[in-house]
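Researcher: We're teaching a course module on how sequence relates to structure. For the next exercise, students receive a sequence and then see the predicted structure as tokens, so they can try to spot secondary structure elements on their own. Here is the exercise chain.
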Amino acid sequence: MFGKIIVPLDCSKLAEAALPYAEELGAKMGSEIVLLSVIGSEDHEKLANYYDYIKRIQEATSHYAGKYVDNEIEKSYDVTTVRRTGDPAKKVIEYALEVDFPLIVMASHGQTGMSRWTVGSVADKVVRAGKTQAVMLIRGNESRSDIRDKRLLKKVLVPLDGSFKSESVIPYICNIALKLQMELTLLQVVSQNGNSETDVKIYLDSVCKKVQEMIDLNIDYKVCIGSVAEIIIDLADELTVDLVAMSTRGMNRSNPLSMGSVAQKVFLAGNTPLLLIRK
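Model: And here is the predicted structure for the students to work with:
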């Protein structure tokens, strides 16, 4: 499904927090991993540092991704590098539009003298642009040195709101879950005056059956009452999921899933990487 996994880098350790996730996804899904560096100018001193940096990162990424492949014969991923000059958000979006079926995996926070990335700037602009179909956001300030010592993506929580548009995330996450052998939990949050729990359970049960027709993996569902973002965050912690995957658009006005509301709150206040699929 994802021909290229794009990892924007700004030569900072914080931005590199996205790499372990891209390595696992790229190796397991057979996708090309593209290390995309955007620099502000063609300054010769910065370029010299860039070439040394990107070569080292490329070698390390290839090495760690290889650990997810059973043997060299089955190796089907590549690690390539691309450099652009200019505005980081604009160049990330432009490059993503140049390739077919990309997944952008980026840290929400990276800072060097070359650029500064926060969820309010580059990552936020990439998501809000509406031109990139799939973006995975990783908290750069929570990077750990031992993060590559284990599987990162084992369980995923998928919030739905009962609308067809919110279900647009399902084919994407099913593809990822199948390749990575992940456990799925579907979630719908209802208000006190919203749909009855019985109706929601019937809906989620039908979605589970459809998913199980596509993939043979463990799948469950939860129905909760309360604030949407708070429930997603709390349940993600309770179930110790490794990823929250959701559509950035929902048709149900009482439960909107958009980067401007629920998704942004989940990312800013939650503790879990967030995969956003734009319908």
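Model: If you want an answer key for the exercise: The helical segments are 19-29, 44-66, 88-98, 122-128, 170-180, 197-214, 228-238, 262-269. Residues 110-120, 250-258 have pLDDT under 50 and may be disordered.
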